[in-house]
Specification:
This protein is α/β, with parallel strands linked by helices. It folds into two domains: 270 residues, Aldehyde Dehydrogenase, Chain A, domain 1 (3-Layer(aba) Sandwich); 186 residues, Aldehyde Dehydrogenase, Chain A, domain 2. The chain has 15 helices and 21 strands. The strands form six sheets. The chain has a seven-stranded mixed beta sheet with strand order 13-14-15-12-11-17-18, with helices on both faces. The protein has a six-stranded mixed beta sheet with strand order 8-7-6-9-10-20, sandwiched between helices. A hairpin with a 2-residue loop joins β1 and β2. α1 packs across α7 and α3 packs antiparallel against α6. The longest helix has 24 residues. The structure holds nicotinamide-adenine-dinucleotide (NAD). The site of nicotinamide-adenine-dinucleotide (NAD) has 32 residues, from α7 and α8.
Length: 471
């Protein structure tokens, strides 16, 4: 693990093994941290905080630009490790590294542009303003679905604003996390202790980080179930928590939708990263007038994809991340078929590795388990609706509130839905995620707090009220 600028084993000597999801074979081991290791890492981050947070923004920014350059220089190597351990196709993993580098550059520039306002108060000779200060030591607990970019999304704005961090990557992608740490260890000017990586299980290392009394804030991305456990761990010390959790995102296809254009976005998103995207389509409500066309074109797209070894640059979809997750996704497919869905294409699991062929399930209903829960896999759940259905009620009938996708040529009709959809993000005739935009605007059980853009940047600061009487 990478703690206080040194490479260390777990104090207990315990290790965990990670597996190549394309072959099912073990690929290596990583230390398995316990509460003692977490305590050492938090101590290192705390000790580094005064000097790092005290640096002028311009000095910290030089380090962030150096990190971005180092990530670009090592993108090929990071992409190979992510491909081997997570199953990300090479081109996607390489692109994620470029995205990760950009996060550091964007965060540095955005942090430098932050400014405050004087607040007029009803008293003479009184200056009131809000000063933004770094939060302190931040514990990050990251998910496996996008190992490299998720690390950058959290780390870049946090350190840009003077915070110091302890990161725990998901245990099944520990080596990808340590590869990122290795790249950071080569960055000149990054003081020891500013960024620390510990590896280990969620239930031991993650829980110890979430409950550590000297951690000021938790930044978490993962399932809603784990998010609730982390909130409970963080409650006794009243930590600030930013939680990006699960989703089951409704897709509304109106009768006038441009089907070809919609599929370029939706079908791509459905199968990219084997469907392991929080913002991806969860359940499709397709108007009866365009339903047959949508189903057959979706299936054609699914069948056109090249699935296989992620290191082959022509491969478009790799395996799912683990045997456990593959079995869970297959369970949803079997369950939907037992409840009356029609398998249009896919549904085949590999004998070697954890693949499932791109799957399209038609004739699903809103009440099916596969339509109610987050599958997080390469499975499109298609539901036909008619003019008699209350589309908004169907879309909102979920404990999740991450995002919704709307496709219609009638922009007015689409925009009238924005206020009615109980979600944190609405995409109309597109899906775009840029550095400038806030992500994690989710509501309901999909999260609290913001990530991305200036909204996300401000989460890594505390607002301090300053009031001076200069009579
Ligand atoms: P997960 O909840 O299983 O694990 C996430 C992290 O939490 C891992 O590092 C894990 O080791 C750790 N963890 C597990 N139990 C813990 C505990 N008791 N205390 C502390 N840490 C613990 O999630 P996952 O399966 O890795 O990721 C997939 C989920 O992430 C999906 O639900 C997806 O929707 C969600 N996600 C959400 C967003 C978003 O922006 N809202 C983005 C990506 C992924």
């Amino acid at each position: 693990m990478y703690i206080n600028g040194d490479w260390v084993f777990a104090a207990s000597g315990d290790k965990l093994t990670t597996v190549n999801p394309s072959t099912g074979e073990p690929i290596g081991t990583a230390p398995s941290a316990n509460a003692r290791d977490v305590d050492i890492a938090v101590g290192a981050a705390r000790a580094a905080f005064p000097a790092w947070s005290g640096l002028p923004q311009g000095e910290r920014n030089k380090v962030l630009f150096a990190i971005a350059a180092k990530i670009r220089e090592n993108a090929h190597d990071i992409a190979l490790v992510e491909g081997e351990e997570h199953g990300t196709p090479y081109n996607d993993a390489f692109g994620a590294c470029m995205g990760a580098a950009e996060k550091f550059e964007w965060s540095a520039n955005a942090a430098a542009a932050l400014k405050g306002d004087e607040i007029p108060v009803p008293a003479a000779n009184t200056l009131t303003y809000v000063k933004r200060e770094p939060v302190g030591v931040i514990g990050f607990i990251t998910p496996w679905n996008l190992p490299t970019i998720m690390t950058a999304v959290k780390l870049a704005p946090a350190i840009a604003l003077g915070n110091t961090c302890v990161i725990k990557p998901p245990s099944i992608n520990s080596l990808t996390g340590l590869k990122f740490a290795h790249v950071l260890s080569m960055v000149e000017g990054l003081p020891k202790g500013v960024v620390n990586f510990i590896t280990g299980s969620g239930s031991v290392a993650g829980a110890a980080l979430a409950s550590h009394p000297d951690v000021d804030m938790i930044g978490f991305t993962g399932s809603s179930e784990t998010g609730k456990a982390i909130l409970a761990s963080a409650a006794p010390t009243v930590k600030k928590c930013v939680m990006e959790l699960g989703g089951n995102n409704p897709v509304l296809i109106f009768p006038d939708a441009d089907i070809d254009a919609s599929l370029k976005v939706l079908a791509w998103r459905q199968f990219n990263n084997s469907g392991q995207h929080c913002s991806g389509p969860g359940r499709y409500y397709v108007h009866e007038k365009v339903y047959d066309e949508f189903v057959s074109k979706f299936a054609a797209y699914a069948e056109s994809l090249k699935v296989g070894d992620p290191s082959d640059k022509s491969v478009q979809m790799g395996p799912l991340v683990s045997r456990e997750h593959q079995q869970k996704v297959l369970g949803y497919i079997d369950g939907a078929l037992a409840e009356g869905a029609r398998l249009v294409t896919g549904g085949v699991a590999s004998e070697t590795g954890f693949f499932i062929t791109p799957t399209v399930l038609a004739d699903c209903t809103h009440g099916m388990k596969a339509a109610r829960e987050e599958i997080f896999g390469p499975v499109a759940v298609l539901i036909k609706y008619t003019d008699a259905d209350d589309l908004v009620a169907l879309a909102n009938d979920s404990d999740y509130g991450l995002c919704a996708h709307v496709w219609t040529r009638d922009i007015g009709a689409g925009m009238k839905l924005i206020g009615k959809l109980h979600v944190g993000a609405v995409f109309i005739n597109c899906q775009m995620l840029a550095n400038e935009q806030p992500w994690g605007t989710s509501i309901k059980e999909s999260g609290i707090g913001k990530e991305g853009g200036t909204y996300g940047l401000l989460e890594f600061t505390d607002a301090k009220l300053v009031c001076v009487n200069y009579n």
